[in-house]
Design a protein that fits this description.
Elements lengths: L19 H21 L5 E7 L2 E7 L2 H5 L4 H19 L6 E4 L2 H21 L4 E3 L5 H13 L2 E6 L6 E6 L1
Length: about 170
């Protein structure tokens, strides 16, 4: 299955341009889709929907060990891609919604902060630049924001699944 970044998808309107009602509708459609997947897999979980920063966020919590297996970053990304496609099939427009399973997004955000900490320390110690591992567009956005807040510069390099950030002094 090929994975396209947000930047490579169709030029449909950005989710930030959508109304609150449209974003909530995206969240509802996504929650219904995820609930259907959980039912097929015979897994329990509580689904919460939120709208913030021009995106719908759908979080699945509870469910015990069965849900923990879905919380791997690659699995969450795959579920998010499938859910986005399902929402797009219903609405006719690309959705930038975010799926979180069992707090995996928060755990990954903390991991990314640790990577930025290490990169900034290496640059402070004299390295000219540090290249991070490949990551999704959402993760790159989190890192870009974190790097900028610290007064450093980051840019994306590469294509598709190999797209990664390089951090340098500002």
């Amino acid at each position: 299955m090929s994975s396209m970044s947000d930047e490579q998808r169709s030029p449909a309107p950005e989710s930030a341009d959508l109304t609150l009602e449209e974003l909530e509708a995206d969240g509802d459609l996504a929650a219904d889709y995820v609930e259907g997947l959980l039912d097929i897999a015979d897994l329990d979980g509580d689904i919460d929907i939120d709208v913030a920063n021009g995106r719908a966020y759908v979080s699945v919590t509870g469910g015990g060990a069965g849900l923990d297996h879905l919380a791997a970053p690659e699995t969450v990304q795959a579920l998010q891609d499938l859910t986005r496609l399902a929402v797009q099939a219903k609405t006719g427009r690309f959705s930038r919604l975010i799926i979180d399973i069992g707090g995996s997004r928060d755990a990954r955000a903390a991991e990314l902060k640790g990577m930025v900490d290490a990169a900034v320390a290496q640059i402070a110690a004299g390295r000219e630049s540090v290249e991070l591992e490949p990551m999704s567009s959402y993760e790159r956005k989190l890192v870009h924001d974190d790097v900028a807040e610290r007064g450093y510069f980051s840019e994306s390099r590469g294509e598709g699944r190999d797209r990664r950030l390089v951090i340098t002094r500002a």
